[in-house]
Amino acid sequence: MKLNSSFISEVTNTTKDSFYFILTGIPGFEASHIWISIPFCCLYTISIMGNIAILTVIRSEPSLHQPMYLFLSMLALTDLGLTLTTLPTVMPLLWFNARAIGFEACFTQIFFIHTCSFMESSVLLAMSFDRYVAICRPLHYVTILTSQVIGRIGLAIICRCVLAVLPSLFLLKRLPFCRSRLLSHSYCLHQDMIRLVCGDIRFNSWYGFALVLLIIVMDPLLIMLSYAMILKSVLGVASMIERLRALNNCLSHILAVLVLYVPMVGLSMTHRFAKHASPLVHVTMANIYLLAPPVMNPIIYSVKTKQIRQGIIHLLSQRNVHLR
Question: What is the pLDDT of residue 77?
Answer without folding.
Answer: 98
